[in-house]
Amino acid sequence: MERLVPYRFGAPVDRPWFCDREAELDVLCNRMRAGIHLIVLSPRRYGKTSLLLRAADTLERDGVHSAYANLLLATTEVELASIILQAVVRSVLSPVARRRHSLEDALRHLRITPKVSIGADGAVSLGLDPATVGTSWIDVITDAIALLERASERRSAVLIFDEFQVVAGIGRRGAGGVFKALADAARRTSLVFSGSHLAIMEQLTKGSGAPLHGMGERVVLDVVPEDPMVGYLQRRARSAGKTLTKKVAQEIYAQADTVPNYVQQLAQAALEAADAVTITATHVAAGFDAIVERQSAIYAQQYEDLGGAPAQQRILRTLAHTPTASVYAKGFLDAVQVANANAVTTALRVLDNRELVVRRGRTWHVADPFLRRWLTAHSPTI
Length: 382
What we know:
Elements: H1 22-33, E1 38-41, H2 48-61, E2 66-70, H3 77-92, H4 103-107, E3 115-118, E4 124-127, H5 130-133, H6 137-151, E5 157-162, H7 176-185, E6 189-195, H8 198-205, E7 217-220, H9 226-239, E8 243-244, H10 246-255, H11 260-273, E9 278-279, H12 281-304, H13 310-321, H14 330-336, H15 341-353, E10 357-360, E11 363-366, H16 369-378
Parallel strand pairs: 1-6, 1-7, 2-5, 5-6, 8-9
Antiparallel strand pairs: 3-4, 10-11
């Protein structure tokens, strides 16, 4: 199966699809072992979750309890607490953990007993009754951290909060402030606050008034550099019995905007389009077109969802044709038919929240290179 699918995208990956990031992995593992809190930032699709999961797996195999909680689906304080508690309990019961714990032992110190169910595969699922938990959801998270520390004995433990930006929208004032007290109280647990929505993560972690300001070391992930990614693309092509020249691999890297997920997606599409041993630029172009065609219904829906705000549609189309840093210049305002800079700011905030645009350096781009192609093919030339 690996030979048939040399590139993976759309979900976290591990070896052999994990490319580079060795330096960042060493930093994360070293800080986690030392019980140091971390703030990990990167745009979506840069491989942040893959890196975090690999770090957690590395530490688990060294006997360090590492719990991973993806907060993306949490909408209330109780759901937030339930996700975190479940992640901790599963870590404590992990088969690769050095010391074995029973489920009863793991739960007996909790002040609020969760509902427990065990799947056919043995996976433990926990739920909390909102009426029972009430305002005590903070106690649930506190007890979860204490459980992780007890299971780790004299070692440091690790608790990863992925997609942490969602806490800003939970509760009337956001739940971010609670985690400062939790971080202060965590004696032997490295808390890792990881997020992909950079603007919200900045509000939570940086600057005066930020609830987690100064709470940990910041690690900011950039794209994988060209040389290691190109080498990776060539190696993976060989695993499928194909030849990929350095020049064509560089073209894949550039056309996919250097974003790791899109690079792998385009590489796989080019390989599938190749009717010969050697993958050529023609196959890359065909693969690109195939992705756009497969996703066209999704792109159309994303565009139509902006129908109540035509200015957002015009801004998205304009950036697809011409990325720019001058979004407040008169030329741009005229092109998108917007009266003032405040309207542009509001529109960009919505488009950014929907992950349709991204700011790289000072320049605004359409976030998805394949969406950009669809927009340029279906909109008037600006």
